[in-house]
Design a protein that fits this description.
CATH class: Mainly Alpha
Helix content: over 70%
CATH architecture: Up-down Bundle
Order of helices and strands: HHHHHHHHHHHHHHHHH
Number of helices: 17
Oligomer: single chain
Low-confidence stretches: 1-10
CATH superfamily: Amino acid/polyamine transporter I
Distance between the termini: 61 Å
Structural class: mainly alpha
Shape: globular
Amino acid sequence: MNRNIRIWRLLGPGLIFAGAAVGVSHLVQSTRAGASYGYGLLWVLVLANILKYPFFEFGPRYAAVTGKSLIEGYRKLGNWAVVMFTIITVSTMFSIQAAVTIVTAGLAGSILGIPLDPYKISMIILFISLVVLVVGKYALLDKTIKIVIVILAFSTMIAAITALTGEPAGETGLMKSFSWKNGADILFIIAFAGWMPAPIDVSVWQSLWTVAKKESLRNQLTLTDALKDFRTGFIGTAVIAIFFMILGREVLYGTGIQLSESGLVFAEQLISIYTGTIGKWSYYVIAAAALTTMLSTTLTCLDAYPRVLKPITEIFFSKLKRQKTKFDWHTLTWGFIVATGALLLLGYLHSTMQTMVDIATTLSFITAPALAVLNYKVVTHKHMPESGKPGKWLKVYAWTGIICLSFFAAFFLYWRFFT
């Protein structure tokens, strides 16, 4: 019993990672992959998780050993690394925040019956989220995320198993397969891989969450404990992604039904997948789990960006570090900037969910190699304690990932602009 209590107490950053990851990449992209291509893109899902694993692991690894976040690690490499990370963060944060918010707005509008368009619902969600973060009540959601993820995971597993044991919904004549000659197929595979299981930026977020967890445990968090926590969340997100692909394949593939680009309609389709396979009784459980999951993803992103940008600001403007006030101006200022930028982007693109998601995921795909290199350099740098440096096999694994991610990014850029 004591051992189980200790394990539950140590769990935290890994499950928060799951809370951030199990969102758009799973509810939207994995379901779309199964509905459009059946199991034809299962290899992409598996490969993306395998290739990105080391770079996500380096976040909690570095934080557990040094007690510092990856941002401090980038600073040890030189200001060029901080500048590079800042450019990547600023270039992707508005599209990422917009993507998760518009999906959340679609779910909220459909489930709660809000008679507003997705853009206005997005405004309300971002405003409330910003208020919650500034007031400091995010800790409550942090505690409940474990329950939310467990509910969604089990309900998705039950729905997937039920769908597998039922009759195929589609007709053979309407089924299609992925083609490298089809531009739309290539664009989708890039978008699908971009956030599977999450953008590599999240490794920095998790290093910050691990630092906070280590401090809350009075530095009693060991490297072994941190890695166990991380792997629990990472493997869990991969399994849940497969469940969503199964649902898309078994319920929609070959039916001729297209998942809508509208957040409101997509939300209704998503919930109907569950209720159609598990039963109508499951509506409220599934609706609550899906909505809470996306709300937590939206809030997590809006929490993470100010948390990341605060130390960056202090690095370049050292005087701000000495200014301590009771009010959290950093969270308010950066949170307002991120929320405003996301809303401007949504307004310009007319709140189209699929377009917003594809832009965000594609940007994450292109920037993945650069972030992978930064994370690798940090954990192998001379300032990293030898006890925490990755072993030979993990270094080879990481370099394999860097080479593959770089090749795929270069292929996409060549295909997009030179063919």
